[in-house]
Amino acid sequence: MAADFRYWCGECGYRTPWLTQAQSAEQRARHYARCHPGVPPRGQAERRRSDSGGIGCLVLVGVLLLIVVAVAVWRYQAR
To answer: Residue 41's CB: how many other CB atoms inside 10 A?
Structure first.
């Protein structure tokens, strides 16, 4: 299982580390029991964005490099 979830406490600045959804919810419940007894757990759940692997940036850099090389060749031949 991937560690794709974390919870932010609604009462203080605490947040769980990236865990599975069940582990993160359990840690949030433990935090509330320890730090905010009697307060129902609330706050914000966050889901990690999927890792694209950076291929989009690599393609962009490659295209820009090809454009720079093409312009350099074209200017050299124009002389």
So the answer is: 16
